[in-house]
Amino acid sequence: MAKIDPQKLPKHIAIIMDGNGRWAKSRSLSRIKGHEEGARSVRDIVRASREIGVQWLTLYAFSEENWRRPKYEIQALWRLLKRFLQSELEEMLQNGIRFHVIGRIYKLPKDVQKSIKETIEKTSANKDMTLTLALSYGARQEIVDTVEKIATQIETGNIGSGDVTEALVAENLYTANMPDPDLLIRTSGEFRISNFLLWQIAYAEIYVTPTHWPDFRRDEYFMALEEYQRRERRFGATGDQVARKRK
Ligand code: FPP
Asked: For ligand 1, is residue 116 a contact (CB within 6 Å)?
């Protein structure tokens, strides 16, 4: 087991799960097989997160841009998601995992929305970890939706335009009540954010690995956490200030 300091665990880890297609292609398999293996990684990373005491885990499972994919691939992803929610419910309940989603969920097929709603309801009392899936999610769309909500509050006279603060914006994002991610992991080697949590990752540490998502399992996850713990987070202060604060 890796040397992870439980005192210095990131409170919130967000992951861009990339590379299912490339993983499958390199093995002459269909992209769907890549997603299926990717779902096994999801299970492993959720379990590992819970075991070490991560409180918030957010996975980018379907972006707004992913709607451009072939219909059969999109349908396969929804099928996989439904299967995942069914197969993991018991474990979520036993392990205190609360299920949550962010994104334009109303765009998902009705049966998938129903499964999501049921899983949210059944796990709502769990308190040890929150597993959030970003589905039909785009950070720019989130910001647009947030601006719209705030504009309505101003229009109806609930608040004035001078009341718009960082805190107010944060409260109106899809991620209201969630802490910002401390660590953002991206698999499959690309150094991009791909419209994921743009506001929330302002101070996140970023870890990019060439490993494709279906091969990203707990060993490498723990390595990412070790690397995170070696880094110094300064939030704009100097290294000396951070060191003094630690003493
Ligand atoms: C990126 O690989 C992955 C996705 C777009 C979907 C993520 C889905 C899963 C991990 C499987 C199911 C999820 C759950 C929650 C059960 P890609 O297809 O973009 O890979 P590529 O860039 O190599 O083509």
From this structure: no
From the list 5, 20, 44, 66, the catalytic residue is 66
Domain that holds residue 219: 6-136+181-230
The answer as to whether 171 is a domain residue is: no
165 Cα to the center of ligand 1, angstroms: 35
| Global pTM value | 0.95
Domain assignment present for residue 235? The answer is no
Residue the block writes with tokens 């819970």? 50
pLDDT band at 1 (very low <50, low <70, confident <90, very high): low
3-state helix, strand, coil in the chain (%, to 5): 50, 15, 35
Give 169's pLDDT tier (boundaries 50, 70, 90): very high
Number of domains within the chain: 1
Residue type at position 42: V
pLDDT digits (tens, 9 = 90+) for 97-152: 999 999 999 999 999 999 999 999 999 999 999 999 999 999 999 999 999 999 99
Q: Is 95 a catalytic residue?
A: no
Residue 215 within a domain: yes
Pocket test for ligand 1, best of 17, 131, 132 (most atoms within 8 A of CB): 17
Return the DSSP state at 175.
T
- 158 counts as catalytic: no
Q: Which CATH number characterizes residue 198's domain?
A: 3.40.1180.10
- Ligand 1 centroid to residue 8 C-alpha, Å: 29
